[in-house]
Specification:
Layout (H helix, E strand, L loop, with lengths): L1 H11 L26 E6 L4 H19 L3 E6 L2 H9 L5 E4 L1 H11 L2 E7 L6 E2 L1 E6 L14 E4 L5 H13 L15 E4 L3 H9 L5 E5 L8 H4 L2 E6 L3 E2 L2 E4 L5 H12 L6 H9 L5 E4 L6 H9 L15 H9 L1
Parallel strand pairs: 1-2, 1-3, 7-8, 7-9
Antiparallel strand pairs: 3-12, 4-12, 4-13, 5-11, 6-9, 6-10
Helix pairs in contact: 3-4
């Protein structure tokens, strides 16, 4: 998944300033009301749940004087668990990917608060089609009758975005996973498994995140190349349960938006928030294009919930879909 790769990306790429001069000031601190209902935050664990649990304590300590109540972080192993925790009233906030957010918004009215800024300096990412450099495959058309590995079927960066590359090119249509273009489609279980399947010749191509190469050793990275990339997707984000009061949301957003990776104490918090470089405000219409993709496979039932005024180019591409 993308956020797991971001931990590596943060170490591998130089930090890009995310508009420090434009950051809002931190909200005023206030007394923490020990009798108020604690604010509960679901944080997903990608590799080490014990470390995420430890990090959640520092995040809670940072946020408490701004929201004026205790903050309790807890660890989930997947996005579905985060959605269910929010559905059942056990989570007020959750850190999720775009697909999980869109499903949560449609099903339980979850609201987008903040998008993560990556080390690339943007609150977005894209997916790529990776092949062996010496395979003779130079374009996606060359993959007809060949094999491809994705990360997971319910995965924006590791399935829906790279699959959309072929749909937009007119090489695939409808929700069928195999037949008609590819000889076989595999779900490898993760980005690293998918790119390694290409590296070792088990499949001809992999459709996964732009950051997947960071999971390989430097000498291995040189053996792979990108032949196509997807549209941009909004980054991972912070979402809030329906009905969470503005009295909590407003200072919480301000406290996270004010974090500056150039300030050591702020950077220490950002490092515990999956190594992101900062946050920008999220809007529903940020997800308009990816909602159309998710709807094709039944993960989103009503993409109009995320609608915006589409450009002529986007309208044309959707008609081609």
């Amino acid at each position: 998944m993308v956020a797991a790769l971001l931990l590596l990306l943060a170490a591998a790429l130089p930090a890009v300033a995310a508009g420090s001069d434009d950051r809002p000031p931190k909200p005023p601190k206030r007394a923490v009301d020990a009798n108020a209902t604690p604010l509960r935050i679901a944080l997903i664990s990608y590799a080490n749940p014990q470390q995420v649990a430890r990090d959640s304590k520092a995040i809670a300590k940072y946020l408490e004087p701004y929201v004026g109540r205790r903050v309790k972080g807890f660890v989930t192993t997947d996005y579905g668990s985060s959605i269910e925790a929010m559905r059942n009233g056990h989570a007020d906030l959750a850190f999720v990917d775009p697909l999980a957010f869109m499903m949560a918004h449609e099903q339980i009215g979850a609201q987008p608060l903040l998008l993560e800024i990556y080390s690339t300096g943007t609150p977005s990412y894209y997916s790529c089609i990776w092949v062996q450099r010496d395979s003779g495959i130079e374009a996606i058309d060359d993959l007809k009758g060949k094999t491809i590995a994705y990360a997971d079927q319910v995965d924006m960066s590791g399935h829906l975005l790279p699959r959309d590359i072929f749909v937009r090119a007119g090489l695939l249509s409808g929700p069928r996973l195999a037949g008609g273009f590819f000889k076989q489609v595999y779900f490898a279980g993760g980005d690293e498994q998918a790119v390694r399947a290409v590296l070792h010749g088990f499949v001809d191509a992999a459709g996964v995140s732009q950051f997947s190469y960071l999971l390989l050793r430097p000498e291995e990275r040189d053996k792979l190349t990108i032949i196509s990339r997807s549209i941009d997707s909004p980054s991972h984000l912070v979402m809030a349960r329906k009905g969470l009061s503005l009295e909590i949301i407003t200072p919480l957003k301000q406290a996270l938006l004010a974090l500056d990776a150039k300030v050591p104490n702020d950077k220490a918090i950002l490092d515990k928030l999956y190594g992101v470089k900062g946050y920008v405000e999220a809007e529903l219409d940020d997800f308009a294009q990816v909602a159309q993709i998710a709807a094709r496979y039944g993960f989103v039932k009503n993409p109009g919930l995320f609608a915006r005024e589409l450009t002529a180019e986007t309208q044309r591409s959707q008609r081609r879909d």
